[in-house]
Design goal:
The complex is a heterodimer of chains A (115) and B (112). Chain A is mainly β. Chain A is built from no helices and eleven strands. In chain A, strands 2, 4, 5, 6, 9, 10 and 11 form a seven-stranded mixed beta sheet that branches. In chain A, strands 1-3-8-7 form a four-stranded antiparallel beta sheet, with no helix packed on it. Chain B has no helices and eleven strands. By secondary structure, chain B is mostly beta strands. The chains are: A mainly beta (115), B mainly beta (112). The interface between A and B is medium-sized, with 25 and 21 residues.
Chain lengths: 115, 112
């Protein structure tokens, strides 16, 4: 049981380049999330997907797009990277577990630098 | 808009001390509150989740309490150990939607 996995772990981009961050979970969770973590700003929600086939904006969606490819996978795309998007990106998932809670489980993160 | 604050931002204690981390939130209409641990360069690990109808949750040496009406939660760590050194984050989920709002975290160092 790998939990939540993210690729890549590290990435350096030049301004204007595009890339897709991949996330997958093997816990059969319905909901998946993308957060960014910045010093002094804490964790902020970018987008989330409450169930397969749906996506919604979070607190800071500008400059990003997402795709819920299937129940397991939720990708985050930067179409034209900007230095302000330098951050650590976390994917998370949640679902009703055996205690009927909806604990969010996080992946290890992707450290992105935009030059 | 929900705002979550954690005090103190950093804490250093000798091994063996009992300690309390504080979390406050501005909107009491919450669905649940979750405490996480984050080690340097790593992701978040869930420690405890308290539903809005609950007053506390316990796991081993950790005890989290929730006072929804006053907008406060505390994480109590008993008999602290150097391995407890990490950043502790609290996050609240509102009544509407799945979004978590995070506090800025408390960076804890337990000295041997």
């Amino acid at each position: 049981n790998a939990g939540v996995t993210q690729t890549p772990k590290f990435q350096v981009l030049k301004t204007g380049q595009s890339m897709t961050l991949q996330c997958a979970q093997d816990m059969n969770h319905n909901s998946m999330y993308w957060y960014r973590q910045d010093p002094g700003m804490g964790l902020r929600l970018i987008y989330y997907s409450a169930s397969e086939g749906t996506t919604d904006k979070g607190e800071v969606p500008n400059g990003y797009n997402v795709s819920r490819l299937n129940k397991r996978e939720f990708s985050l795309r930067l179409e034209s990277a900007a230095p302000s998007q330098t951050s650590v990106y976390f994917c998370a998932s949640s679902g009703r577990d055996r205690r009927s809670t909806d604990t969010q489980y996080f992946g290890p993160g992707t450290r992105l630098t935009v030059l | 808009k929900q705002e979550v604050t954690q005090i103190p931002a950093a804490l250093s204690v000798p091994e063996g001390e009992n300690l309390v981390l504080n979390c406050s939130f501005t909107d009491s209409a919450i669905y649940n509150l979750q405490w996480f641990r984050q080690d340097p360069g790593k992701g978040l690990t869930s420690l405890l989740l308290i539903q809005s109808s609950q007053r506390e949750q316990t796991s081993g040496r950790l005890n989290a309490s929730l006072d929804k009406s006053s907008g406060r939660s505390t994480l109590y760590i008993a008999a602290s150990q150097p391995g407890d050194s990490a950043t502790y984050l609290c996050a609240v989920r509102g009544d509407a939607g799945n979004m978590l709002t995070f506090g800025g975290g408390t960076r804890l160092m337990v000295k041997p």
